[in-house]
Amino acid sequence: MVKKRIVTNPEDTSRSIQRLADAIIKDYAVSTHDAVPALFGSVLEDYGVGNSHTREWIGRLRNPERLEHLREELYSIIEHADPFEDVFGALYMATSSRSKQSGLGQFFSPQPIADLMAQFTVADLDMSQYSPERPMPVMEPTCGAGVMLLSMAKTILRHHGREGLRRTAFYGNDLDPVCTCMAAGQMLLHVTRHDAQVASLMIFNGNGLAPMETWRPWLYATAKPDTPENVKQGATTPPAQAEPVIAPLPHVAATVDSPSAPSRLTGSLGRDRQMGLSL
Question: What are the two backbone dihedrals, phi and then psi, of residue 172, each rounded to the nearest 5 degrees?
């Protein structure tokens, strides 16, 4: 039996996402707060960059194999949305328990506000000083669902075109593993589904007030390396040379379960911040 598609009006992203969340609740009889991590965890698993957290979230659901249909609906929503539109931040903020928001200080920025901040920051920036090999770093140490990273990418695309994105490296971090997963999933989906190549994308899980060396890398997606061996599972340093296209799935590395210390990577990021943007 073929299920009826949930997305009846792809232009209305918020309603489509709400319908998708309602479908998860109906299918699994769980709260949206439990369903959202499982859905985004399944996205990272589908891209081959899952970890112990994503597997745990999916494992909480009855009949986790049914996530495949719901995940395909999410992919459809992303494909019909504007590039780098925040499709889950507002939903997550509205459905998160009041106690969790209070405990972690979670109050997400609405994307129109994030868009305005990005406009002030990068709209008139001279991107000629950067290149895919030496990109402009943009880092958000408390990224939530990734709205500021999404708005920065959206604004760079609008004012500097796809070449501007290819000259930008995006770094995000959040204390909440669910937010880390959401930011990684949203950015990865928009980059791949809209063919919006970036120099690199790295998402961490850690305390934004703590030293960067303590952050745990969740996702490392970089431009396609000259040699596939340069990027692998557990890698902590980007390749020296890269073509201005996003890496195919085998070259996307998640290191949350790796024993390798990320000190070299975060040390390099700390130096790059001197010439980049920290939000």
Answer: -135, 150
> In angstroms, rounded to a whole number, what is the distance separating the alpha carbons of residues 128 and 65?
47
Sorted by sequence, the CB contacts under 8 Å of residue 182 that are 6+ apart come out as 36, 40, 88, 89, 92, 144, 145, 146
State the Cα–Cα distance between residues 235 and 110, nearest whole angstrom. 34
Beta-sheet strand order (sheet of 200-205): 242-246, 216-225, 200-205, 168-174, 136-140, 277-278
Contact between 47 and 74 under an 8 Å Cβ cutoff? The reply is: no
Q: Is 161 left (phi over 0), alpha (psi -120 to 50) or beta?
A: left
Distance CA 13, CA 16 (A): 5
| Number of CB atoms found within 10 A of residue 232's CB | 12
Longest dimension (CA), the chain: 56
pTM of the model: 0.78
CB contact at 8 A, 109 and 147? yes
pLDDT digits (tens, 9 = 90+) for 101-136: 444 556 778 899 999 999 999 999 999 999 998 999
C-alpha distance from residue 231 to each of 83, 190, 239 (Å):
26, 21, 7
The residues, ordered by sequence, that sit 6+ positions from 81 with a Cβ below 8 Å of its Cβ are 10, 13, 87
Q: What share of the chain is helix, strand, coil (3-state, %, to 5)?
A: 50, 15, 35
- Round to whole Å and give the CA distance between 192 and 51: 20
- 71-99 pLDDT per residue, tens: 998 899 899 899 999 987 766 765 654 43
